[in-house]
Amino acid sequence: MRIHRTFEASITNPRQVSDDLDQLGRAASKLWNVGRYYAQEQWDETGEIPDDGELKSELKGHERYTDLHSQSSQRVLEELAEAFNGWFTKRRNGDSRARPPGYRKRGDSHPRSTVSFKAAGFKQDAQFTRVRLSKGRNLKEHRSDFVLCEYELRPDVDLSEWDIQQVRTVHKYDEWRLHFVCRKSIDPDPPGDETAGIDLGISNVAALSFGGESILFPGNALKEDEYYFGRKKAKCDDSRSNERLRLDRKRTERRTHFLHTLSKHIVSECVERDVGTIVIGDLGGIRDDDTGESRNWGKHGNLDLHGWAFDRFTSMLEYKAEAEGIDLTVESERDTSKTCSACETKDGTQRVERGLYVCEECDTVANADVNGAENIRRKVTPSPSEDRSNGWLAQPTVHLFDRNEGRFAPREQVVDCKP
Ligand SMILES: [Zn+2]
Known about the structure:
Transposase, alpha+beta, DNA-binding, Nucleotidyltransferase, domain 5, seven-stranded antiparallel beta sheet, 419 residues, IS1341-type transposase, binds zinc ion, 2 domains
């Protein structure tokens, strides 16, 4: 099995390389515009948009093409062709508001586009954590002119375990960063053949059911961050937009860290319990809906409620599970919140009150999110025998995010003694 990852690194010698990277990034925008202009001409003349092959062969003699390494220039034109294709697809699907890709220009200047360096365009020096990026003939001041970036990765990332396919220079948050696009082959055995179900939500970010045991992950840490950063931002007046930007960035980093930690934690809980398959609820058309209209998120509420997209979490979980040999299956969430996971009744006589699911048919009381997670799990694994106790449905273990430790840990269980 082949797995892919992109690792982001910060550049530790920005003063030495920023001007060069600016020049390359702007050159990529100019080449994009050259390609865009050529495509327009062809379109007006023939009614057809050239594909990436034609763009490359027609423009490879162009001065702007030779600003960048040939592979980098090819990639810019491929991106342009992909952008046109994306637009066609949207139009074909009836999205009349979709627009063709535009020119990359801001007033008289050009934005700093991402530049990709494929195998022949970069040379990594792992020992000194440097990478050498090639310029095009046109921008070289002498034969062996290149950009030598020194970088720093997250401490847990070891690039020597990977084949680096591409290096990208990405301008964001007002600075240049490197993306290492990597791949490697692994073949892990699954930990076992148990199945776990996951229900994603707002108040509990995730409910995890192993069928007989369940864990809840409340979203407190996310909520606290929303509140904290919301207040901080409200205090900034308009003259301090840099401060706002910094706060947004900080909040995004914290959220990403939370989601990474959560997905890692869930996978390790699954490994411990011999899980070979994780079933996760499909949030219905999130990826397919490209009209940009507000979507029906049902019980999940607004996409922006936590400011994070559930599908991003699913993909984080998927690659972490994959690395342990665990399959991730996405199943429709239809009826999973209405059905009783103990007796499978879904006639609408069940109630959900204060997070509890109560079944009139079999008298089961369950945590509503655990009930959902168990129903999702059942989509892949058949029901257990009927005489099995289902008390666990009402008594999930709660794992909370500990900000100081940066990890999830079980909270002392508060047992409700009332009958
Ligand atoms: Zn029931």
